[in-house]
Amino acid sequence: MAQQLRTEGFDQFKGLKAGELFAMSLPFTPWELATTYPAMYIGKANRPRAEPYFEDILEGNTWDFFYLYNPRSLEEAPKLFVPTVQFEHFLRIVNALAGIRLTIPPGVPGSKFHLKFGEGCSPRPRFLGRSICESDFTNIRLKTPIHHDDDVGKGVSEAVIDDLVRKLHVLKFAKKEAKKEKNAKRREEANMRRLDGIRSVQRMLGLRPVAGVSARQVDIEQVIPHDRELDAVFAAVDIEVAEESHSVILEVGISILDTREVVNVPPGINAQNWSSLIEYHHLLVYETRFQRNYKYCHGCPDAFNFGTSETPRLGELTGRVRALLAQHTAAPASNPMQRNRTLILVGHDIAADLNYLQDIDVNPGQLPGFLGCADTKDMHQAWRSCPSGCNLGAVCGDLEIPTRNLHNAGNDAAYTLQAMLALAVRARID
């Protein structure tokens, strides 16, 4: 198939001499756009299969090159174009060789591959030469004629010349548009991930059914309407470090909710009934218990709102954190056949806290039953459809969760888990 396609001779361009014009209606593809097609228009799955053919785009393929000077900058090298029919033909060859289906994109992006010239008597591309290999291409470029008198656009309106210049710089605009589209797609994918995060938490709390089951109405004064997924334990983690040395861990806050506890308890307004089931912990490192941050945020390590702080020594901290995170999920030693329960770590912008856990030799991936994370910053951003996330205090304020003594690790972990529960409920009823 590919060999047969390569026999196409494009007789309509035979006999043209350098500097000659072709039919005004002929659509052209900018050569720059043709050669950057893989990076701009081929997805990650097909790109490795197609790129080798674009790297050898000049070898064994017939290209009739045309050139056009910029009437406002005649000293610049002219832009090169090929007939669109030849680029489409090349895509068919690649498809036959690679077993894929490349096409010129539809809509506005595709219009850049179908440029027409000569409107309003503006300059048109002139024939440069035919190439079937890289050496041909090099030779004909060296013989590019100087600009013709008609290439200056004399007597052509400024608006028409403006349009021509835009066509000559189509790649620059195409890259901008492609980047804009790529960023929009990336934002959409990120938002879908955030929405999936909310839905996953809702399924684990019995607020949303598993796939294939019809959703029932959620009533905050009634018990959960669906079976819980994964029999999960949520553990919110917040870590406060010294502001001048982030390797110095000052406090660790851990708040835990066993989803078995919510089965027979209606969530209530903002999941307040479920918040009363949370188990709260605050670990204040003994050696640095009097140290507090004050430059960038006002630390309050002695103001834990949810019980009594523990003061483990630094050498005991790792073991205590591991024990708290494993206490509800690790299979009992008396029954080695029993599986670990699912552990979900919760945080507000959790990436930093995961790094701090690693700093104290707590690897989340090695915790019994660890499956993944829930991030309340992402959950709130998805629920409110915000372009960016909010800090914990703002999220709690939006959810009407009263807060005191933020930047105490125990309090922040507590409010993070309360916010997760409220978001899961509000996103099902609002």
Automatic annotation (TrEMBL):
Which intervals of the chain form a coiled coil? Answer: 161-195
Which InterPro entries does the protein's record reference? Gfd2/YDR514C-like, Gfd2/YDR514C-like_C
- One GO cellular component term: nucleus
TM segment ranges? none
Keywords assigned by UniProt? Answer: Coiled coil
The record, for Pfam families, names: DEDDh_C (PF21762)
Q: Where in this chain does the record put each Gfd2/YDR514C-like C-terminal domain?
A: 233-423
Task: Give the source's domain of life in one word.
Answer: Eukaryota
Spell out the protein name for this chain. Good for full DBP5 activity protein 2 like
Q: Which organism is it from?
A: Verticillium longisporum (Verticillium dahliae var. longisporum)
The uppermost taxa in this organism's lineage are: Eukaryota, Fungi, Dikarya, Ascomycota, Pezizomycotina
